[in-house]
Amino acid sequence: MTKQRLVILGGGESGVGTALLGKAKGFEVFVSDKGKIKEKYKQVLIHNEIEWEEEQHTEGKILNVDLVMKSPGIPDKVDLVKQIRKKGIPVVSEIEFASRFTTATIIGVTGSNGKTTTASLTHHILKQELNVGLAGNIGESFAKQVSEEDYKNYVLEISSFQLDDIATFKPHIAVITNITPDHLDRYNYQFENYIASKFRIARNQTKKDYLIYDADDEEITNWLEKNPVQSTLLPFSLTKTIENGAYLDNKDIKITIDNKQIIMPTTNLALEGNHNIKNAMAASTVAHVLKIRKQTIRESLENFQGVEHRLEHVLKINKVHYINDSKATNVNATYYALESMDAPTVWIVGGVDKGNNYQELFSFVNEKVKAIICLGVDNQKLMENFGSMVDIIIETQFMSEAVKIAYKIAEAGDNVLLSPACASFDLFENYEDRGRQFKEAVRNL
């Protein structure tokens, strides 16, 4: 019997992980990357005798295969992808491919914001009592983990791009943290296309499966009214009383599933802010479904350290707090950051704008921001939106310079906040690189 041929487009974390799993499962594997493949990934491919190419796509090797796994970063409008689809070759995401080779219980977390924190917090709670991996958009690739140690449970952080290429993928528990306009450049600037993409997480679920979602989010509740799902619904809310699901009662989170209620105080939560109460509700609801002990959930919520580059306290210098929120790559994430500022703030913002509407930030900027430092190649939109709101607005294209300017402007008791509301690709490799450069610049002050 001839081997099935698998082509992988993109030689990054998900691509190389899929290559390892594909080879282990008997596929003939070829990895093709239009850019350069990082040295550490190249070494893995060479060591495992997997065929690869970089800085090109050889069409002859790609268009006569059985299956294509496409990295989430490659848009559908690329010519090669159109040709592959035209030939009827199935295109899947890493999440879809890997899920076919595991019988693990899968918890899938998606949303515009909060998904990394919610996925990390969920994993942090579950790992106290279960054998559980953390993968998807975070850490080591899902496919690699399935090929190497195949946990009994997985918490997956899943982006809309990964959901676009699923066919049979079905998490037992799906979480949608919230939906706000993001990545609209990939969805023909149609918000409803992006919402539909997020809801693919529940498309294969049955009523034995669960969908946990933010009942305060109008986009989510409106969509569910018009497009009902099969799943058992477990909403969470800060404002409503929820019969099945989670809600906030004074300072307690109350979670009810099948008439079993647990109560979690929020007074000692490690993470601050209303958005983190929601993340805690989502994670605790997952844990309650999986019958984790109440004591374990409570302790885990109290000792969870948070996620790097997400409202991360870096240093206090001359009584000024420096806060790294580089992971805020859209307006809604920056909204949460500014909302949680309790002192005058020097705000570092900017990067690649994905069609941002800055209006929802205006009241916070008027109330809390004393100076704005625009850190991007093109800052015109920021200047137009915020120029009249603050006395000081400065442009720069270097992180070290942005931090030095902030240091000069900030006074004792102020915050310096990096919360870009934009993607990082104009000046940085990715948001992690941007966050690390910020932290380094602060440490060098």
From TrEMBL:
The keyword Nucleotide-binding applies. Residues 309-422 form the Mur ligase C-terminal domain. GO terms for molecular function: UDP-N-acetylmuramoylalanine-D-glutamate ligase activity. It holds the Pfam family MurD_N. Pathway: Cell wall biogenesis; peptidoglycan biosynthesis. It catalyses: UDP-N-acetyl-alpha-D-muramoyl-L-alanine + D-glutamate + ATP = UDP-N-acetyl-alpha-D-muramoyl-L-alanyl-D-glutamate + ADP + phosphate + H(+). Its EC number is 6.3.2.9. ATP binds at G111, S112, N113, G114, K115, T116, T117. InterPro entries: Mur-like_cat_sf (IPR036565), Mur_ligase_C (IPR004101), Mur_ligase_C_dom_sf (IPR036615), Mur_ligase_cen (IPR013221), MurD (IPR005762). It is found in: Cytoplasm. Its main location: cytoplasm. Keywords: ATP-binding, Cell cycle, Cell division, Cell shape, Cell wall biogenesis/degradation, Cytoplasm, Ligase, Nucleotide-binding, Peptidoglycan synthesis. Residues 109-287 form the Mur ligase central domain. Cell wall formation. Catalyzes the addition of glutamate to the nucleotide precursor UDP-N-acetylmuramoyl-L-alanine (UMA). HAMAP family: MurD (MF_00639). PANTHER family: UDP-N-ACETYLMURAMOYLALANINE--D-GLUTAMATE LIGASE. Belongs to the MurCDEF family. This is UDP-N-acetylmuramoylalanine--D-glutamate ligase. It comes from Gilvirhabdus luticola.
